[in-house]
């Protein structure tokens, strides 16, 4: 059991180090030696968990999928929006998420498949959009996959702009503005009027999701 815990911690330390190196230098310029130095582990320990730099990068990209889950909402559009706003907040506060996004947007990362985060975000959103459509929250003309792709692509552009201008400091306000512009073409007016698009929504949703996750972990460990 102790060995398993150590292995998990070592893997996480390596991923955290890789995230920092990838964020600081980009995929192409990053080296295994830099990651080893940052992680403070042996080459053998690294290669036990990851076979190559590309494998490390995919590990960092996949960490975005282990995000906390926003609380369920009666409005599925609000629930989708909460996920978007929470992701924006995590971009401001979580180095692993920032590194994953940098990798997914890095056009110089030759040989690295960067499609995963975009495809997984679209796939994960589809059931919630389907529920929103079934509940009558969406306008009749909406094509779900098309709308999801537009939102994912627009978010990617807005976060890249925020990162370039002020290192994500204004990301919450930019994402709020993005949704105020996009949602009227997708959501019925009655639902639109009830949505919380405030800039502080992401931080609040994150805090609630973190508390729920901690409580669940406590129940699991004592059960």
Q: Topology of this protein?
A:
Blueprint: H1 2-29, H2 32-39, H3 43-49, H4 53-63, H5 76-93, H6 95-105, H7 116-134, H8 144-166, H9 171-182, H10 189-192, H11 201-222
Structure, described:
The chain is mainly α and 223 residues long. It has 2 domains: 2-61, Homeodomain-like (Arc Repressor Mutant, subunit A), CATH 1.10.10.60; 64-222, Tetracycline Repressor, domain 2 (Orthogonal Bundle), CATH 1.10.357. 73% of the residues lie in helices and 0% in strands. The chain is built from 11 helices and no strands. It has helices at 2-29, 32-39, 43-49, 53-63, 76-93, 95-105, 116-134, 144-166, 171-182, 189-192, 201-222. Helix 7 (116-134) packs across helix 8. It is globular, with a radius of gyration of 19 Å. The two termini are 17 Å apart. The relative contact order is 0.12. The mean pLDDT is 90.
Report the strand count: 0
C-alpha termini separation: 17 Å
Rg from alpha-carbon coordinates? 19 Å
CATH fold group of the largest domain = Tetracycline Repressor, domain 2
**How would you sum up the global shape?**
globular
Largest sheet: none
Per DSSP, what share of the residues sits in E-state strands of 2 or more residues?
under 5%
Enumerate how many helices there are, as a single number.
11
**Any guess at the CATH architecture of the largest domain?**
Orthogonal Bundle
Mean pLDDT: 90
Classify the helix fraction into a percent range.
over 70%
Q: What series of H and E elements makes up the topology?
A: HHHHHHHHHHH
CATH class of the largest domain: Mainly Alpha
How many separate structural domains?
A: 2
- What class, by secondary structure content? mainly alpha
Stretches with pLDDT under 50, minimum 5 residues:
none
């Amino acid at each position: 059991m102790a060995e398993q815990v150590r292995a998990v911690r070592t893997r996480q330390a390596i991923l955290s180090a890789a995230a920092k190196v990838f964020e600081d230098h980009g995929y192409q310029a990053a080296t295994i030696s830099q990651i080893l130095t940052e992680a403070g582990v042996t080459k053998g320990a690294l290669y036990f968990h990851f076979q190559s730099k590309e494998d490390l990068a995919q590990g960092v990209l996949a960490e975005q999928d282990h995000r906390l889950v926003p609380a369920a909402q009666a409005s599925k559009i609000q629930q989708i929006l909460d996920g978007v706003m929470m992701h924006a907040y995590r971009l401001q506060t979580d180095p692993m998420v920032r590194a994953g996004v940098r990798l997914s947007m890095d056009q110089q990362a030759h040989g690295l498949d960067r499609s995963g985060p975009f495809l997984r975000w679209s796939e994960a959103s589809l059931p919630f959009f389907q529920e929103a459509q079934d509940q009558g929250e969406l306008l009749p003309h909406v094509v779900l996959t098309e709308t999801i792709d537009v939102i994912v692509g627009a978010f990617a552009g807005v976060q890249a702009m925020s990162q370039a201008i002020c290192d994500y400091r204004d990301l919450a306000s930019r994402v709020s503005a993005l949704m105020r512009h996009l949602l009227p073409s997708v959501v019925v007016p009655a639902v639109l009027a009830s949505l919380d698009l405030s800039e502080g929504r992401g931080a609040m949703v994150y805090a609630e999701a973190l508390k729920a996750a901690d409580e669940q972990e406590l129940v699991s460990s004592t059960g």
